[in-house]
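Fill in residues.
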């Protein structure tokens, strides 16, 4: 007897859904059965193009959003709709008994996200955000290194950057430059990742204060207001650990995180989207400074730690593991509360950073 597979519906033919189609295809325990869009033509075109590259044995059907949620052959939905539209459809999906994977940022506010999570809890379905790197095999290796007590010693500082240089077309037309569709701008699109990594490194302890600064802002012609285009944030934790981040639509591609301690530091140069190849890596560095008369020596000692993991949707890629893990939870009908809990914590910190920025950089305590 063939092993049961989780049957997925994709609610919105966004660009990121192309990548996740392949991840579902290669997961081994999931299939796509339906794709919804605002027009049947767009959904059919999406399915046709994806089937040519990563075909499912049975061609997924094209349908409307509401039709997809009523289908008996859909158990889980992936929702890459704009942030401003997600709350409505997450709640509708949960009320239809569908497990929900939600793109990030999850909601316009923590209050909205609480309603979304409550709907999933009420209906006994899984909620999870689509942060792929959380499912990479590199993360347990980084955790072990942080916790071993010798590689970096006592953790003191976390710093991260995620940025890309948006082309003019993006700035004129993209939904991420519309406050109606993506109200948090670069903070939602990129800062969700940097904030999440800092919380993960701190074992999800919440900061006692955050400080946010909007460095530049802009809105496309039809945007009700401007959105952050560059943003910096500081998270202050009890015990003396701090975390800083910088996100931007105006600075060329960077996606690094540095964790500094009393004995050394750990550097990941591609923490969101791993560089193309067959392994993911990070470096543990100890610089030794010595003075010998007039000679001042700085010696570098770098240990490279690698984990075998292919990129671009291969069976052991982080995005494939994301869908494999979620599908296991959906098939087992045993929602894991850890995933909505960390989504809410990320949202709370992000909201506090944005609130601080609106107050001119005044420190803000995230809501409990």
């Amino acid at each position: 007897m063939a092993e049961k597979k989780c049957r997925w519906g994709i609610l919105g033919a966004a660009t990121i859904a192309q990548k996740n189609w392949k991840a579902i295809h290669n997961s081994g325990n999931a299939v796509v059965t339906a794709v919804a869009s605002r027009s049947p033509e767009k959904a059919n075109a999406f399915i046709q193009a994806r089937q040519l590259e990563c075909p499912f044995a049975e061609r997924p059907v094209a349908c409307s959003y509401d039709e997809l949620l009523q289908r008996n052959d859909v158990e889980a939905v992936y929702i890459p709709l704009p942030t401003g539209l997600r709350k409505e459809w997450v709640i509708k999906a949960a009320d239809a008994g569908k497990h929900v994977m939600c793109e990030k940022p999850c909601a316009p506010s923590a209050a909205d996200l609480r309603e979304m999570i409550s709907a999933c809890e009420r209906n006994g379905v899984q909620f999870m955000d689509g942060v792929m790197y959380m499912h990479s095999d590199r993360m347990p290796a980084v955790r072990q290194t942080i916790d071993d007590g010798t590689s970096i010693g006592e953790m003191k500082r976390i710093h991260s950057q995620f940025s890309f240089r948006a082309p003019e077309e993006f700035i004129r037309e993209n939904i991420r430059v519309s406050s109606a569709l993506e109200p948090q701008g670069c903070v939602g699109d990129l800062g969700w990742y940097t904030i999440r990594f800092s919380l993960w490194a701190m074992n999800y302890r919440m900061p006692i204060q955050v400080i946010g600064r909007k460095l530049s802002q802009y809105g496309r012609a039809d945007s009700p207001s401007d959105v952050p285009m560059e943003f910096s944030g500081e998270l202050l934790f009890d015990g003396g650990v701090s975390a800083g981040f910088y996100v931007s639509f105006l600075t060329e591609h960077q996606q690094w995180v540095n964790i500094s301690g009393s004995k050394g530091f750990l550097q990941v140069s591609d923490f969101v989207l791993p560089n193309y190849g067959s392994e993911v890596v990070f470096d543990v560095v100890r610089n030794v400074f010595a003075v010998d008369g007039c000679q001042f020596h700085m010696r570098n000692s770098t240990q490279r730690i690698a984990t075998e993991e292919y990129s671009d949707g291969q069976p052991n890629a982080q995005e494939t593991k994301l869908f494999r893990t979620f599908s296991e939870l959906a098939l087992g009908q045993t929602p894991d509360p850890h995933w909505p809990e960390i989504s809410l914590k990320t949202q709370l910190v992000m909201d506090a950073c944005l609130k601080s920025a609106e107050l001119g950089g005044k420190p803000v305590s995230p809501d409990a």
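The chain is about 35% helix and 30% strand.
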